[in-house]
Amino acid sequence: MPEDDQRATRNLFIGNLDHNVSEVELRRAFEKYGIIEEVVIKRPARGQGGAYAFLKFQNLDMAHRAKVAMSGRVVGRNPIKIGYGKANPTTRLWVGGLGPSGRGRGILCDGRERLLMLFLLICLLFISQI
Q: What range(s) does the RRM domain occupy (predicted)?
């Protein structure tokens, strides 16, 4: 579970990439696991190491599913290595697991919506205890 790993973030580091891999290829390989907000590909000069990328998913659950499913898979011509990237500070809040089985969709909130969402979540938790 992603919440068990303190290093887990919604950003994935993808290493050992083919130097010619494209953003389209990366999106195609990873988008089945969730919404990708950003792709950044770094291509060091030849002899300075292989290409690598950072993928930012909409939430932690999506990133975790992609990490588990794609680790060691071949993208382009190379088997990739995946780790969690650094977290970027944000004022947004993701509330997931809202479905009946705890695996449903979530809600992404910003600003004042976040306070309202926290209040509603606390109310729901309180009501479910009654």
A: 10-87
Contact 92, 107 (CB under 8 A): no
For residues 92 and 110, the answer to whether their CB atoms sit within 8 Å is: yes
Q: Which amino acid makes up residue 62? A: M
Neighbours of 130 (CB within 10 A): 4
Q: What is the 3-state secondary structure (H, E, C) of 60-118?
A: HHHHHHHHHHHCCCEECCEECEEEECCCCCCCEEEECCCCCCCCCCCEEEECHHHHHHH
Cβ count within 10 A of residue 22: 12
pLDDT tens-digit readout, 51-108: 999 999 999 999 999 999 999 999 988 999 999 987 665 555 556 666 555 555 565 5
The percent helix, strand, coil of the chain (3-state, each to 5) is: 35, 30, 40
Where do you find CATH 3.30.70.330 in the chain? Answer: 2-84
Per-residue confidence (pLDDT) for residue 114, from 0 to 100: 64
